[in-house]
Every structure is written in structure tokens, then in C-alpha cells.
Amino acid sequence: MATNKRYYWIKLKEEFFTDKRIKRLRRISGGDTYTIIYLKLLLLSLKDEGKLYYDGVESDFIKELALTIDETDDDVMVTVNYLINQGLLEVVTENDEYYLTEIPSLIGSETASTRRSRKSRELKMLQCNTNATHKRQKCNGEIEKDIDIEIDKEREGEVEKDKKSTPIFYGEYQNVRLTEEDYHKLKDKLQSHTDTMIEKLSRYIKSSGKYYKDHYGTILNWYEEDKDKLRHQGGTKKMNYEVGESL
Fold first, then answer.
1. Which residues of 55-93 are buried (b: 16+ CB within 10 A; e: fewer)?
2. Full domain range(s) for residue 179
3. Domain final residue pick, 105, 130, 146
4. In principle, which of 19, 100, 219, 241 could form an S-S bond with 50, CB 3.0–4.6 Å?
5. What is the 3-state secondary structure (H, E, C) of 21-87?
6. Average pLDDT over residues 227-232
7. Which of 105, 135, 150 is the last residue of a domain?
8. With contact defined as beta carbons under 8 Å apart, do 163 and 180 qualify?
9. Where is pLDDT greater, at 4 or 98?
10. Residue 164 pLDDT > 50, yes or no?
């Protein structure tokens, strides 16, 4: 059975080009090229939710990235260094994995079935517009009815999928990234200790400035190390926050 392929795109914010970080980038000599490289990197990372990987094809990450997006090594190096300095790109694992921090708010997507429905409606509209006026009015009315039915069906499926896969931010500092499914799985495993562990991770990320690739896995690892203490409050065991770290 064929899978329902998903298509992705970038939804640029209205203030993208007025963002001071982008304005400053464009004022650098060659800045328009660097801005295009940034947009290329955003597109390249879409399917992996903002992550860029070094596969070892070239001698280093910069050369491999330049090869992938067809830009010069020097231009890519300037862009990457600027993005890191401005907090738009983070090093997750040295020379191996990088993360574009703006991606979560820029991703748009639709399934193949939704794409087909949309293109079918566009074709019907084109055909209707070639008919006589009275036929076109009837045709447009039928399309609008079809659109309403299809949109309702799509929304039911898309909303359900998005609820399960869209990250939600938890914790005192809203920096613990979990999907709704992840949160419910934690509730099943950790029960009453779920929120305690989420708050521990939230405070540690805030105080240490460290980045964790998988917050769900990190919480599970921490819990395994500290469940005895959590179950017997008042113990002397020290919480080990380094367990499960992905740097």
C-alpha cells in the first residue's frame, strides 16, 4: 500500500526581512547571497524539523553543505558562522548535527491526499470558468459544496495528526519540547512524577544553556536514574542531569 507522502514548505513571517538579524546580514558585503543561503538551509532542514547533518561525504560540514546547496565554501562558512553568532543556528553535536532554531514557527505541510484534492478543485474551477455564466454559477456552487465536504474531512485527519506530531512546549520556562503523544506516554510511564521531571528539565536547560535533541528520551533516562529517590522522597541521592544528554 502506498504511503501518504507529505509535502513541506516554509511560511516566512511578515517581519522576516525587517528582523534586525536579517537586516544586518544583508548589509554585509555579499549579504543577499548569505540570505539566500539561509533560506536554502531552512528548506534543506524542513523534513527533519530544522536539523542539518554531516554525512562525511566531504572533509567537513561546511564543504558538504556547500556541495549540497551549490554554493561556495567561503559563502557557506560566513553564513553558518553568522547564524551561530545570532542564535539562528545551534551546534547539537560538534561537526555532526546542527539545528536551525526558527524552523518550528516556519514549517507548513500537507499530505499527498490533501495536495491532490486541492489540485482537483483548482482544475474544476478552471473548467468552470470556461463555461457560460449560468452554468458557471451552478458549477461554482457545486465546487464550493465539494470543497466544504473535503475540507471537513481533511481537517479531521490533519488536526488529529497535527495534535500527535506538533511539538508543545512545557515547563516553567516553556522550553521542554514534547508532542501530545510523548506527553501521554510519559504520563503512562512516570504517572504522578511526569510534571516533576518536566520541571527539572525545564530549569536545567534554562540554567545551563544546554541543548537536548530528544526531550522525551532525556526525561525517561533521568527518571530511570532517579525513580528510587522520587518514590521515596527525602532520599539523599543527587539528581544526575547529565544522563541522556545529546550534545
1. eeeeeebbebbbebbebeeebbbbbbebbeeeebbeebe
2. 168-231
3. 105
4. 100
5. HHHHHHHCCCHHHHHHHHHHHHHHCHHHCCEEECCCCCCCHHHHHHHHHCCCHHHHHHHHHHHHHCC
6. 75
7. 105
8. yes
9. 98
10. yes
Task: Report whether 39 contacts 10 (CB < 8 A).
Answer: yes
10 and 98: one domain? yes
Q: 51 has which bridge partners? A: 99
- pTM recorded for the entire structure: 0.47
Residue 176 clears pLDDT 60, i.e. is over it: yes
| pLDDT number for residue 236 | 43
User: For 25-39, 165-179, 192-206, 226-240, which range has the lowest pLDDT when averaged over its residues?
Assistant: 226-240
Which band of pLDDT confidence, cut at 50, 70 and 90, is reported for residue 247?
A: very low
CATH number at residue 26: 1.10.10.10
DSSP alpha helices (H): ranges in 86-193? Answer: 112-128, 133-165, 180-190
What does the alpha-carbon distance between residue 80 and residue 60 come to, in Å, rounded to a whole number?
13
